[in-house]
Amino acid sequence: MSHDISSLRKFVSPEIVFGAGSRKSVANFASNFGARHVFLVSDPGVAAAGWVQEIIDLLTEAGIRTTVFTGVSPNPKAEEVMAGAELYKASECDVIVAIGGGSPMDCAKGIGIVATDGRSILEFEGVDTITTPPPPLILIPTTAGTSADVSQFAIISDPDRRFKFSIISKAVVPDVSLIDPQVTETMDAYLTACTGVDAMVHAIEAFVSTGSGPLTDTHALEAIRLINRNLEPLIQNTADPYLREQIMLASMQAGLAFSNAILGAVHAMSHSLGGFLDLPHGLCNALLLEHVVAYNFNSAEDRFRRVAEAMDIDTRGMSKPEIKKRLMNRIVELKKKVGLEARLAQLGVTVSDIPHLSGFALQDPCILTNPRKSSLRDVQVVYEEAL
Ligand SMILES: [Fe+2]
């Protein structure tokens, strides 16, 4: 009997506590891991918003010491991971907590790997490279978009190669994720838009990925539906707790989908932009999205029809080219309404960067699950369209 493994699908997820106030259970979970000294990773902006001090207070009340590390830049660098791991070891910490956006969370994942294994973080690039279990990890996301809090990805920048590399492993799925919409209330409208569109990209790429399947499809479609309906109203009223919760839920579902179905060309190309030119991840994705959809559409027509339906487009009786046009129009309209209209050239990308960018994009693991096989020339053309 033949055994075809290409149709097998797996699903990994952290233990999730979702809802307003869930962050306040951080000390209970840390205690359950036997924490005596927590290594708390964040960034200066999140600390200035007061969220770091609240976590320190909660841990202190439970008799747990903390060492705080906020030396994380927007695209976390390999040397920041190494510095964090040194401090973790010197402070004799035993559990890692991170509160922040994708950057502190990815940095915390890297710190955990290096703190137990000892080698350079650069040696863990790729899929399933971690053989020593990292310390217990509790993540508290403060943005609704990156989904590092549920994913088996850690994305780290290597400034020497000007390259953002991916670590993909079940070992970087956190043990606990405290997903609390209240902490996203300090995000401004622009960051809300960038991270919200990033979550939309996660959901669309996961749904059309060659790794998609029944375990991830429902999460991806629900995320698309929620973001399509709630992101514009949230940008109009960023303090609305109901809308914050809807977008946080969408981000979580998109994260569960892409962590397991993996992504596609938008992420391969935006990781390349982020590594080469140190540009913000969500914005890069937003600027590339409709161009990649146009490129991919004919390779996954039925999947894109279902994406269009999740975006409330009534596709009954429509021809395939018509569905493609309506879907692209809706994506462009959504981006415009949330204020993300720039083109890559306005971020400082030039025609002469495109060969480098395309070469790096083809080395990114996310390109492997893109529904359309991509050559160097294909990727160059899509960058040119987005310029
Ligand atoms: Fe992303």
UniProtKB/TrEMBL annotation:
Cofactor: Fe cation
Pfam families to which the protein is assigned, alphabetical: ADH_Fe_C, Fe-ADH
InterPro entries tied to this protein: ADH_Fe/GldA (IPR001670), ADH_Fe_C (IPR056798), ADH_Fe_CS (IPR018211), Alcohol_dehydrogenase_Fe (IPR039697)
Molecular function per GO: alcohol dehydrogenase (NAD+) activity; metal ion binding
Domain Fe-containing alcohol dehydrogenase-like C-terminal, chain residue ranges per copy: 192-386
Keyword set, alphabetical order: NAD, Oxidoreductase
Keyword Nucleotidyltransferase attributed: no
The organism's place on the tree of life at top rank: Bacteria
Alphabetical list of PROSITE patterns matching this protein: ADH_IRON_2
Domain Alcohol dehydrogenase iron-type/glycerol dehydrogenase GldA: 14-181
SUPFAM superfamilies the record matches: Dehydroquinate synthase-like
Family affiliation: Belongs to the iron-containing alcohol dehydrogenase family.
The name this protein goes by in its record: Alcohol dehydrogenase
